[in-house]
Amino acid sequence: LPGLASGEIWAANSLTEPESGTGKDINSKAIKDGEDYILNGHKWLISLFPGYTKLIYAFAATEEGIT
């Protein structure tokens, strides 16, 4: 997080999905597997990628809702 805050590291946003856009109707799922999560879904647009980022964060729905 310090690298992101200082601007040394750039992160890409992977929110947009082909059939659900960017709203609360995200179809990608994050399923808890022990201490980890298994991500399953499709993203349509990843901002600032490729070439600029060292980190890509993804939005997904868990049993608790959007994370």
From TrEMBL:
InterPro entries referenced in this protein's UniProt entry, alphabetically: Acyl-CoA_Oxase/DH_mid-dom_sf, AcylCoA_DH/ox_N_sf, AcylCoA_DH/oxidase_NM_dom_sf
Protein name: Acyl-CoA oxidase/dehydrogenase middle domain-containing protein
GO molecular function, one term: flavin adenine dinucleotide binding
